[in-house]
Fold these 4 entries.
Entry 1:
Amino acid sequence: MDKPIRVLVAKPGLDGHDRGAKVIARALRDAGMEVIYTGLRQTPEQIVAAAVQEDVDVVAMSILSGAHNHLFPKVVRLLREEGIEDVLVLGGGVIPEDDIPGLVEAGVEGIFTPGTPTKEVIAFIKENIKKK
Amino acid sequence: MNIEERLLKGDKRACARLISLLENNDEKAVDIIKRQYHKTGNAYVIGVTGSPGSGKSTLTDRLTKELRAEGKKVGILAVDPTSPFSGGAILGDRIRMSDLALDKDVFIRSMGTRGYLGGVSKATWGAVKALDIYGCDYIFIETVGVGQSEVDIVKMADTVLMVMIPNMGDDIQAIKAGIMEIADVFAINKSDLDGADKTKLEIEMNLDLNEKSDYRPPVEKVSAIKNEDIDVLLQKVRDHENYLKETGKLHERRRRNLKVEIVQLVEEELLKMIMQKALEGDLLEELSHQVEKRTQDPYTAKEKIISLIRE
């Protein structure tokens, strides 16, 4: 049981819809990961501070308010400012297809829209994790 | 700069990484703690325990804010249970501590129990030392939501704060052995609920039956969510701290706890040594077959395994 993958699941922005985040958190738990759940309405600064203290391998965020183009890249930028390069950043929620390439380029390496099977997210994390 | 140098400079990431290494049983982490152990012992350790949903996280958040107003540096280790089936965990204590995330003098770390019973995780012992070296004045250890017998927090805390809520059973619960015996300070949280006075009375009556001592655990009604009487509660914790320091009992208590810790480390290492040998030659497999067939009994099987390292 040593070295479980540690994932921060966070809800940046102002929408209060955390059903999806909770479903993901539960699925990752069942896949043997340690999920740090930080709750609703987190600022990018809070998310990055938690990611630092928790020494996570993955930051997974969910937004349904439409603010993803602003908030997701900001989290990546703040992580880089902290000197963190080895954390996998994922985004989920209602995200129009046209926005995805821009987000990926900004460093949000996996984008998962509604209807994605949780198995897919788990497989993506296991394949793309960067820490040894 | 390596982790050790960065840790001594108060670098949060270094502290976080060291705790991860401890959780993953990395020898490098143990070596760092060995070298820096002389720097530990300055932080005052407060254990926060109580049943699930009693408000341990919210109360820890509020107490931390009081300590921060005094300029103290605070570390928080928040433990939640690991699944015995998948090895995964949901660590959700940070939800109640969102405001503290950006405070540069607060360090919050969520930990899964990773198979350890007793309300904390095995790595919690090491993580306390990491936060001590990092320079915390106070360290809170928030246990998993406990039942009646998870009392390991008493082996690592200087003060145990027991968080109760009204109407969790009758007065017999208050006189049962176990968790009720380890509290140095009782907080009755959610004091706005009916029954808070009755719960306080039941605990007080139970304390009346204790042997005479120069310290009696206080019982304080608080409301963490409404931020009521948190300052009073902190003062009670402080009173206990002062009592231990003035009477020399802090050293006594820490010696007692360190003895337990050393024994625990020896047990762990011995078990590892024995089991490695037992698993090597399939001895365990063989013996369990024989025991199941009744050609061997479990006590003799034990003696055979122990004899592996006797020579």
Note: Chain B has eleven helices and eight strands.
Entry 2:
Amino acid sequence: MAHHPRWLETLALRCRCGNDIQLSSDGYICGCGRKAGAWDGAKAVIGSPIPYWGEIPQDQMRRLLDESERNGWRAAVQANLEPVLSEYVTTPDRAAFQEILPLSSGALVLDVGAGMGGIAAELARNYRVVAQEGVAERADFIALRAAQDGLSENLAVINGDVNSVEFAPGQFDAAIVSGVLEWVGLFDTSKGVKEVQVDFLRRLRGFLKPGGLIYVGIENRIGWAQLRGVPDHSGIPYTSLLPRFLATWVCRRNRNYRSSQNVTYRTYTYTHGGFLKIFAQAGLRARSTHISVRGYDYPTELVPLVEEAIVTYTLEHLNRPGGLKTRLLNRARLAAAKPWFWRTFGADFVFVLEAAGA
Amino acid sequence: MHKLVAAALARSPDRISLATLGGRKGVAITLGYLDSAKWPAWVAKVAHTSEAVLELAKEHQALLALAPWAEELGVPRVLDWQCDSTNACLLTSAVAGRLVRIIFRLAGEPGSGSEHLNAALSWLERFRRTIPAGGGGPAREAAIAALAPLKEECGAVAGLRSLLESAAEFAAAPSHGDFWYGNLRFDGKRAGVFDWSGLAARSPLHDIFKLLTSCCFEYGGAVKTPPDVAAFGSIWFSATPLARYFREKIRPVSDDQAELRTAFYHFLAESILIAGPSTRGIWYKITSILERRGFPAPGSLLPAGIWT
């Protein structure tokens, strides 16, 4: 029976009645009588888990969990997942963005929508991490990998929906939102997508201590990957480029549309300016903006929107000189090594946000 | 973020933007850019594995040793250093300048690539003049012993054995160890060099070969690395017994200029024979450049007909 880390007891949820519920016992019950959740031995379960969704089908996920318990999670992942997915789950590169996050050792970090725990587990080597994940099987997997890697003292898992887990204000030094902001519109269809996203960011801002940071990794709506026809979150290429109403129309009629909830186009991404606007609406401002050249999932190469940094990166990654085509391509890449170009067409953004008044 | 990086950010009165540019396995490299400055203000290397920590410690030691000549040679200065068994951070100044992919033109007028190649070779000259030769000394017996397991099947072994047996004493010279264009920065014609974890006493030829085999060559209307140059690079730098011999045992070069030339050109000629029959003219061009730069020059000691 795994035990929660001692520091988890210092955290509190905020009840609807306005009182705080300390996570210091195994049952999270407010003074008003409402039960917010419970510690189930490996993870805290808050509210109702969301229906299963993930990179692999649910039965395969359950087999993976069984095998992880028997043979260790790394061996199970390598045996059961495709190489690309296996790399995605196991690589420490997914948390490489920590090199640009000004956090002190032992800082308290909330990983929102932690998935299979690739980021949370790596951050837990340096910080205290709360991995919040809505899908029960994935939350179980994170708890298992933390226990097997000896990280349980620094990593607590909370199984609860991103839109409903309500922490008491002012507790975290940072919140990690990597590949999550674009999806939150699917989990709350009662409001417009932008409104859901702004509310989500505003809530996260409230969870932070003064001076706290939010890390956001997300695609550019008109990034070069999207222009090249890489499938959008809808599962269909080019939908992010369309006006929203047209994207909705396309999604309603396209059999490749991939959301099981069938709630039309609700996975909004934005241009650089669009992101800054919704951040401002949530009371946040960008402390730094980077282009993650390998995609926000692999943030090992983060280039700030500073001309010299862009030129340096471009020079180091030009193709080796060859024929005319290569030379022309290299020249084009050097010509495009400008902050405005990268800001407009960079594929994936990485933002470090702080409260607007900070 | 490592606390040395956080401290560097806190120390700076101006806004600094961070860039992470990947790095070798186990090492994260972060560059700090002042918004208004031309080059990065500093570079932080953070090692996360014990092997990477050792490499970083070597680089730290090398930079401390080079500190008196850092300004003159365009070598990074150590700003801060912290190390334990599994984690280390080396914070240094950045090398001023930009990366230039050297394209070495073999025909026609010298182009910009030649300019930068010359700047890099000038840097090597300065380096050899400036840094006292470290280590080296008598190595003849060891070199001959190292030949023993090699078969006679390639002509180079016999030639080099005879060369070693005829030499009296060998000495090594300070060498960067990974002197390829990616580790150089050019501010105008002035070169600066970083990534110093490989600083050691070796053959002075090592750095030249590394540079030349990393360059691209323009010939026949195309820009690419000729097969002979690539083959030569793989012979010199690969991990085969023959390569080990070339790298480690030929490195001791006599103090005597004539012997040094003999050693170099026997080695060069024999390795070209091994590398392949075509485009030897490229090596002739390379050695011509070396001659102009004051490195050992071809002469009558070359085997007859080697360039034809």
Note: Chain A has a mean pLDDT of 91.
Entry 3:
Amino acid sequence: MISLQNIQKVYRTNTIETLALNSINLNIRKGEFLSIMGPSGCGKSTLLNIMGLLDAPSKGDIKIDDQKLDHLSDKQLAQFRNKKLGFIFQSYHLINDLIVLDNVSLPLLYRTSSEKERKQSATDALEKVGLSNRVKHFPTQLSGGQKQRVAIARAVVGRPEIILADEPTGNLDSAMGNEVMDILLHLNKSEGTTIVMVTHDEHMAKKTHRLVRLFDGSQVQ
Amino acid sequence: MLKNYFKIAIAVLRRRKFFTVISLFGISFTLTILMVLTAFINKVVGDDYPDKKRDRSLYITRLEEDGPTNMSSAGPSFYFLNHYAAGLKIPVKIAISSNFNGTNTYVNNKKIAVNYKYTNADYWDVLEYDFTEGKAFSKQQVENAEKVAVISTDMKNAYFGDESSVVGRYIEADNVKYRVCGVVKNVPITSYMTYSDIYLPYTVSKMDYNYKGYRGGYMGILLANSKSDLSKMHDEYEQMIQKIPMESKEFNRMYSHADTYITSYVDTGNEKQSGVLIVLTVIGVFAFILMLLPTLNLVNINITRIMERSSEIGVRKAFGASSKILVYQFIVENLILTLLGGLIGTILSIAIIKFINSENLIPNLELSLNLTVLFIGLIICLVFGFLSGVYPAWRMSKLNVVTALKA
């Protein structure tokens, strides 16, 4: 599903060069739930951003569904992300000016769908995460766990094949973290969604199919 | 999609009330100035009372003679207009009138400032004044140099008070008594070619209208049979000017033009400078500067606002918005802001125009916010919104997703 070949990422400033990722080779199968662990600053999020086409590698190839993606234009990349990928962020990144329903339906805005269809899909997605009673609330009226469930609903509303989650339980207490993790596991099992999750939590990582460890930008496991 | 943009635009406006007030104030204040100004220009240029046949009239307001050392420019003389211009074949009539002159008159020992002008009889045929009573003086009365006068409604009220009919009564101006033969609806002073308080036959003028000099403080309006004759009439006048002998040896070139209303209205009095060009440049520069300042202010505020929303930009990009779509979104949001400013500006303009009219700041100039002005206002709003939205939106669209999400 996702193939990373010899991925390298270097950050350059006027005076310094930092190697964030070094020769990463990784193949993620369709329907796999993979977790990435490692200490802070080891390149986990950078790797996830590269997989999500939010950042470009300095070297190496990335293929999703056997499709090489380095030549795509801004518009094509946007369309590809919209159809294939869903994102969950540690700090939720909900738009506080929009109600929950509008936040969830956001990915569908960039597709050809009617308002009615968008509303229906967003309601369905919110039902899956158990928040159908919060559709008209604003994000500021929700708890951390509820916000992350809204973020999950937004990630799945467009039925992407891949979900990339960057420390989705990082800001939550263990009970809420477990709830969120259960939703992701269920999504992976019932719908076959491929999930790549960055986490610091060994306990959460153990629930996934495979664990990849990074250290100083290199893959150590 | 648009509904969503609208929702978020309103939410953003409500969230940062102080910025919103500053932005809206800048836009609405500028628009108010521009709209009142355009209402004024529209009234001055567009109001065709009493020259309702403006579309088939040409105006002669100046005659210039140049020599190697001298240059003299002034309104043409009565003699020049009556002798040369009146002899043209294409015009069906020529209205001749002097520039208005000021004098004082007294009613019950109270001083009233009065403006008067001399006209020929055809003046009343070429122009279509609305008579509230009586009529214009006739050709015969002009030839007989009868001391008759057409007065404006304001003059009637100032001189005769509440009297219902004043035709046949006498009015004194410049120490001469004139019998009122007609009362016309007022003309604002901004229509300086047709404005006056008292209109008198040129034959009663204390100046010698038979004086054969070419310059003499008069103006003429050539009336063509139809609109299509205008250019021919213009050419005929130009050719006539070429053939007229110089008044004296100190001059070797003569310039005078029969121009459309607008061109003669803004005439600079100098052959080498186009009045239209100067007026357009002045208005253009004024409008540009007036719009530039709030535009720069808006650009600045917009950049701050957009950067505050970098997380939203990152999320939208991550979930499939291309840079182009985001630019579109922010421009639409900005247009909503400017149109809101436009709405406030329109309300303010209406209030100010009402105030100008009710206070009679410019006598008889009844300003109105008509459809043309509203349309210009709308265009100004859109240009505003576009100009102040494009650069911030472009800056924002270049934002890297990862950086945006980290901010």
Note: Chain B is about 50% helix and 15% strand.
Entry 4:
Amino acid sequence: MIGGGHTGLATSRVLAERSIDHVVLERGEIANSWRHERWDSLRLLTPNAQARLPGYRYEGDDPDGYMTMADVVAFVARYAGATAAPVRAETQVTSVTAAADGGYRVIAGDGEILCRSVVIASGACNAPHVPALRAAVPSTVASFTPFDYRNPAQLPDGGVLVVGASATGAQLADEIRRSGRRVVLSVGEHVRLPRMYRGRDVLWWMEASGVWNQRYDEIDDLVRARRLPSPQLVGTPEHTTLDLNTLSAAGVELVGRVSAIRDGRALFSGGLRNLFALADLKMDRLLDTFDAWARSGACDADVGAIERFEPTRVPAKSPLELDLNSGAIRSIVWATGFRPEYDWLHVPVVDHKGHLRHDGGVIDDAPGLYAIGLPVLRRRKSTFIVGAEDDARDVVAHLKGYLDRASRG
Amino acid sequence: MAEKKTEKKPETKRKNGVNVDALLAAREALKKAPQAARFNWRAACKWQNGTHSRTKVKGFHGLMEEQNHKTEFSFDADHPEIFASEDLGATPVEYVLVGLASCLTAGVAAVAENRGIKLRSVEAKLEGAMDIQGILGIDSDVRNGFDDIKVTFKIDAENASKKDLEALVAQSQKRSAVFDIVANPTNITVVVA
């Protein structure tokens, strides 16, 4: 098992249940990414009631609240203890190669491990993804990614351009705006959701209605589904909705997707309005699905009345360009997504876009090699804490079958 | 007023005359052969007189080889009389509106086909607002091109709600070549041979 985050630990617990001898290699401390690669104010966008791992769940007194990063780290660390997971911490994997006998050779820490199977649980967010046009940003403007951003105080005084309006971009635009700075938010494709719907958390609806359980082989355009950005949600005690209307009401200036930076001028798309329409329509379709499920399951009585939300307001005048040399913008936060890193994986199973080629976590090109914890690995909920268990059970079932066949042959 | 064209293949039931099966098959094939997806579209223009020019379109490159339209298409462009010209053709900026309208309309038909929506009629009215102080060089703060383009679709379909039609039009923009060309910056290189 490569990776000692919540997914690696969940899978480890399932392996242990099936008496499959294994070790979990974690490059840092348990829940390393949650400790080091997150900003200060970040909370989970899933409610505590959805903090469930195999044989373990949140048992505090705030099931509707959202964990802080410290809470998440503690939760995952306690889980590792409770499951007695066989973790080797501070053990970075530097190479995985196929061994002659059909197994794998893993070089990690200062040693080598020979094994029959490897599960890659290093996640999809090993590095920030920053567009190539970042190179054209004038040197007078500072750049930050979600990996080095911690709080508004570290930003230079003055205006901030936040690029990307998904979960990270929306949250950071909001927090930076509240610090009193001018914020321009460049909006590309995004997923809009209300925090609360008919009195319940929207993610309760995702789970209860079965949308989150939709399987990867039932999805028409799986490539697209796996690339969907995180929804514009934030976890606050007040359960606030964080959509573009909230942000624009707070004074965040919305502009289109950054298309190019020419002579120090950032050029924005004029197609902003349609991105709003696409996100609004998609949200309404999802809410229709929730309503249909509520009606069919006769739980209409347990939830509030049907609601629909104001369409995303289009700014009266949205600039098509911003002169980054004028001094109006002193820093840029690139909330433009993340990518996995597989430079330690010396088995040819990564495609030309840097993603693992897998079928529901099974890497057909390398028998015995598996992946877990990737977007829509096997279900829409795959990358959420609550999604780890079902995927882990499926992947381990396949792995057990593989080991049994391999040992017979 | 049905949109359905006479079909060549009786077994392909097309609601709007768009051969979506072929497009989906092409999509799959091109995933495996990305070089074949590299197209080059062409136009050759000859000045006629004054602001009147004639542009012809016939050949293009795609799917690894040179291709040709069935016939050569010819487009006359000119300026109107109020611009002290002869008005022998639509203006170049109107051609851009034609491009945008056709691209979005074709997209509406294709997406409708894919979604099983039977179209009865689709009309698009376009307006491009322009302050000609830009092109006349009177005021350098005024851009040459359109300040704003507005497209209004009127769609009548058999089995689609207003939301369905809005989604149709939104998806058409999302996948439209001309929408992208007009809404986003595009590199243009002009050389003198």
Note: The mean pLDDT of chain A is 95.
